Amino acid sequence: MPRAITAFSNPLVKQVRGLWDKKNRRREGLFIAEGLRILTEAREAGFLPETLFFNAAERHALLEALIAATEAAGGEAIETNADILHKLSGKDNPQAVLGVYRIFPTGLDRIDRSAADLWLVAQALRDPGNLGTILRTGDAVGAGGLILVDDCVDPFSPEAVRASMGALFTQKIAAAPWAEFIAWLRSGEGELVGTSLAADLDYQAARYAKPSFILIGNEAQGLPADYEAKCDLLIKIPMRGKADSLNAAVAAAVTAYEVTNQWRA
Asked: CA 163, 168, 172: angle at the middle one, nearest 5?
């Protein structure tokens, strides 16, 4: 039987609200995800929250299934209201459900390169919306996951989780410094495809091997020159207007769909 929490002063409410801070997420080993769609996709991918907050006034069949699965797995379901969910989520119109999940490991040993033909790699990505969108793109094209290189934004931040629309739970995520990533990549099969405005090869003229690792650089700086030099292919997406580059997440999507379209054809 779920217990009810309606007081802002409740210690658990304060703890979960604190997970908006990266330091608290790291210390607690927890992160939050919100929305019935995202939490249902997480459940279908085998992830259940340790704590589930739900608005008792908005019961739904999918929510009932989520509550039952959470409690069956040893987690706790907590009835609350829109005001508490607003405090926890930081949104004026909060979702009816919010889950607290255990952060999963992000070592390169989580990546089985034989599990997919396409992988996305982001270097020094700073925007959580871009990170979440790249995860969502990876899910859409059937990529295996996303490898974060160097100092990237936290994939477990509420903004990144929200932007991923559940893909955080369906895509493998790893993080590593550049030197560690390159050593790992060269220890097995895999073609590293870098995107750069300095490249001469059009992204549609290139021919992509399997597995391909698409490397996207930092939003403002792009890829460092020495990183570009390590790529097997260096491609560019032509810019016909006055803008000098695409948004990082858009560039990842355009390239990923070109690669998969060639393989499909």
From this structure: 140
